[in-house]
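Issue: ligand-bound run for acetyl coenzyme *A - logging full I/O for the record.

Environment: standard queue, default settings, no custom constraints.

Inputs:
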Amino acid sequence: MSKIMESVFKRAKTCDKHIVLAEGEELRIINAAKEIVKRDIARITLIGDAKIIESKAGKLKNINIINPHTCEKTADYINLLYETRKAKGLTLEQAERLALNPLYFATLMLKNGDADGMVAGSINSTGDVMRPALQIIKTKPGVNTVSSCFVMCMPEDRPGFGQNGVLVFGDCAVMPNPNAQQLADIAIASADSGVKIAGIDPKVALLSFSTKGSAKHELVDKVVEATKILKEKAPHLVCDGELQADAALDAAVGRLKAPNSCVAGQANVLIFPDLQAGNIGYKLVQRIANAEAVGPICQGMAKPVNDLSRGCSVEDIIGVVDITALQCD
Ligand code: ACO
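Outputs:
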């Protein structure tokens, strides 16, 4: 296990948060829940039918199970969903049906203050997990964009990148084509996740195929504009752009291409111009450099919701629950 995840595990234990797992009938989720409670990391509610869950895993100790079809709060949640979304055209009948969907039900629990965080995605797509959260939980006050980041932990023989081999990449999983304003939001949120989850001192690079005007293109203009907005919105953040990845990461190249930059050559938070670049970028580093990729960590939401990969292991689920606990205020 990486040092980052060791530290995340230790810190999550002290938070004493209540996390709802929407896919409570999935065996990996049940096994993760058992382990989380055994290790005293968080309090857990599984959404599902107790009979089905216990037929798979036996009697569960100290784990709350809620079936949306029999829960006494379901009527409140239907009302909450209807009130939250009626202006968007949601009918009461639609709310009654949707609230029974475990992903919506868990999101409504969170919205209602009956859980501190939510995790799903072991058997559902990113879109299906994120959509209810985007519609119901929405963004933190003062934040307009929900995005995500990965904490990338380089193998021990490559400590020279980022802060002792730890970097944050954003956005690699949520926002397909951010505009300049949204890119600045992603940078602020990723720096914040870097502090909260990875314990780094953020130095943020907005990446491009151009460094400081070396290329002219509308795609570069977006990154230049985002850097300007970022510097205005977060004047205390150490940030710079537009930078190519080598100028951001390599001290010699940084000195050559961007000699006056406060970030070039020492960046530890890399902001990709769009989701194609971000998603491809993190997977390349993960596969080719054998880096550990912790995430995606969802950021900017009013309450923490995190998405699992469908290929996730029990240990992966435990890791995401720990991160979610750390994100709870
Ligand atoms: N930030 C804030 N609000 C948002 C965001 C965002 N990033 N995206 C959507 N919303 C809001 C919308 O304004 C809308 O609000 P409203 O209904 O109150 O007006 C609501 O959320 C729903 O918006 P839709 O556009 O209908 O949402 P949609 O489901 O189409 O898109 C989603 C959201 C699912 C996150 C989409 O952007 C998406 O599919 N992203 C890519 C996910 C993905 O496939 N990632 C790669 C795989 S993950 C991996 O490899 C690790």
